[in-house]
Amino acid sequence: MKHHAFCRMAFTVTNVGFGAWQIGGSWGDISEADGRAALNAALDAGMTFIDTADVYGDGRSEKIIADVLKSRGGKRPMVATKAGRRLNPHVAEGYTKANLEGFIDRSLTNLAVDSLDLVQLHCPPRDVLYQPEVFEGLDALQKAGKIKGYGVSVEKVEDGLKAIEYPGVVSIQIIYNIFRQRPDHLFFQEARRRNVAIIARVPLASGLLSGKITRDTHFASDDHRNFNRNGEAFDVGETFAGVPFEVGLQAVEEVRKLVPAGATMAALALRWILMSDAVTVVIPGARNGEQARANAAAADLAPLSADVMAATHEIYERLIAPHVHQRW
Asked: What's the pTM?
């Protein structure tokens, strides 16, 4: 893994980090022991960036992270969390400074720290991005020392472009993978120009790009790949990257032909993301230590050839883009 600056912040991070949604919930039965093992394996492999949210398991993810880091001691990795999704209803009017401060205080307790390294607005309604007072409130919380920096997690490219107009926004988290290539058209160019960090999430399209999912794969009732297949609980783009399941399986079979000898499809998919110098860190999740170690090792895969990159773009344009490109 490569180490580099988290753009405008005083943190050095690995280009592969740990996505902690799975150890919180909504991915079927993942025990706390397995979650701890996955996180420890990621840290043992050298990862220095962890991404979580206050709603992952209603704080479970944040608390596991706090406990693991306390037990390990030593230099802490950068820990990013998110706020806003605890609002019910989740509406723009709820993004007040008082509400955000309450969410941040809760995360401070869960993570057992005095100041959050990075807090991200958690895919807020678009109207939030047109309310300067929200970002002024975050500026005030940063000055008060409760957060070291703030960013925005977005669903759509347009929301990312709007968010980085605010000078205090240091990072954008966005879905970027072989099945969601649009961010690299314009958004990454603008993010580079403004020196904004890019956190690439859903890198394996909810497991589709692991190459291990088939038409017969069973997903538990509490797995979002079951209950959010059509966007019933949250944006459908978070599940299989918004690609219709059957279409995704068809595309996976074509991507499989591009996997280098001795590598896995998951490693190819992660290495594909790292081919973009705009990406600061990619955050695959892991159900256990083995997956976490494999994610770290993907960074060591040789750069993909121009022919492989061209083939992935052709698969995207032909099979995937009609379903996702203009939607997100």
From this structure: 0.96
- Strand 12-14 and strand 3-5: the pairing is antiparallel
Tokens of 22: 């799975």
Measured CA to CA in angstroms, residue 205 lies from 53, 181, 251 at distances of: 19, 12, 12
Residue 104's closest CA among 123, 92, 126, 120?
120
C-alpha to C-alpha distances, 211 to 162, 163, 249, 322, nearest whole angstrom = 35, 34, 9, 22
State pLDDT tens for residues 145-174: 999 999 999 999 999 999 999 999 999 999
Angstrom distances, CA of residue 29 to CA of 18, 56, 211, 271, 285: 19, 14, 21, 28, 14
Under 8 Å between Cβ of 187 and 174: yes
161 and 190 Cβ atoms separated by less than 8 Å: yes
| Per-position DSSP letters for 234-303, written without gaps between them | S-GGGSGGG--HHHHHHHHHHHHTTPPTT--HHHHHHHHHHT-TT-SEE--B-SSHHHHHHHHHHTTSPP
Residue 319 — very low, low, confident or very high, per pLDDT cuts 50/70/90? very high
pLDDT band at 30 (very low <50, low <70, confident <90, very high): confident
Residue-wise pLDDT tens digits, 75-124? 999 999 999 999 999 999 999 999 999 999 999 999 999 999 999 999 99
